[in-house]
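Title: Prediction job returns without error message
Component: structure pipeline
Severity: low
Priority: P3
Assignee: unassigned

Description:
Job completed but the reporter wants confirmation the result is attached to the right record. Sequence as submitted:
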Amino acid sequence: MSVETPVAPDQLVRDKATLLGFHDVAMTFPNGTVALSGVNLTVGRGEFVSVVGPSGCGKSTLLRIASGLESASDGTLELNTDHIGYVFQDATLLPWRDVQGNVELLAELAGRGPKIRREQAAKAIKLVGLEGFEKHLPKQLSGGMRMRASLARSFTLDPEVFLFDEPFGALDEITRSRLNDELLRLFAEQHFAGLFITHSVAEAVYLSTKVVVMSGRPGKLVGTFDIPFPMPRDPDIRYSPEFAALVGEVSHALKEAHS
């Protein structure tokens, strides 16, 4: 796999500010499992792209390649920023650190000084609505609050590209819905590029500017849906006939891809 040289800022504007791109990306693991085949997908600044597909189709592998945790077997990864945030399925908080300490962690690992870390953590904690909980340990937080702390931790690195690996999948429906709304607010305020993995078609349609459907293994893109609902997005759009119809279209494409 080759990694393209980052382009200049003015070139980003001409290219619609593409920050992340997969070009004919394929992935075969050492045990012979072919996870991805010929994936072509770009995510630009101000785009929120959700990926839906059957279990085991390589959705999470895409994120690992984008983050550098895995190297693709073939194809090209285009990455035009060094500022990447990664939110996992689990909040992955250190149980012995309070919220403040957990949110400071990535900045600490990046070698930033204590004063800068505290300032960045305070800003991120306020951004995700966790003010007043700085001294709480993870075990004292609800599932939704732990995920907010995980989001805040990534925001300390000022990500231009945010990778989300089913971050709300384990939460109850009410908390998940609330965090969907919060994530859309953060997206509108921060203008990052988002790549979001989910098994929920309704969640994908609600959050995204574009939804792509992957086939079963080896995963490849078999459908793309531009989401017409404007940003900032009205939460009540989820109860409209237009929303239901689009969810139905994506669900049908997903069923076809899995058959």
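Comment from assignee: result matches the submitted record. The first strand starts at residue 2 and ends at 3.
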